[in-house]
């Protein structure tokens, strides 16, 4: 069994930003030369998540609209009364409760075993941010 560790850097431009990182994950996998195993992705942030879903522009807009309505930024959140870094981001942390910080995807013959409509997304909940990181752990043979 071989193990490889790398990161994917993301710059986000919107308060909620849905970025397709599937090609970056494929490139990281290809660089290893491994043929079968798993890729585990981890967002290294409490206000950014990893998700597998369909890549379609109107659906991405629907997802953003849903997240904004589900937990509004202007709620009466205690975390915003005394922020650590000056960001009123309690809503971002609360959204993170309902999302995943990691995903694991199997691969065979050097290819990710995603479904026809599946893509891997980095979802920013507290942007814009200059630098975000996704840890990519690849294990296999």
UniProtKB/TrEMBL annotation:
Pfam families named in the record: YjbQ (PF01894)
Coiled-coil stretches noted in the UniProt entry, renumbered to this chain: none
Organism superkingdom: Bacteria
PANTHER family reported in the protein's UniProt record: UNCHARACTERIZED PROTEIN YJBQ-RELATED, UPF0047 PROTEIN C4A8.02C
Family the UniProt entry places it in: Belongs to the UPF0047 family.
Protein name, as recorded: YjbQ family protein
Taxonomic path: Bacteria, Pseudomonadati, Chlorobiota, Chlorobiia, Chlorobiales
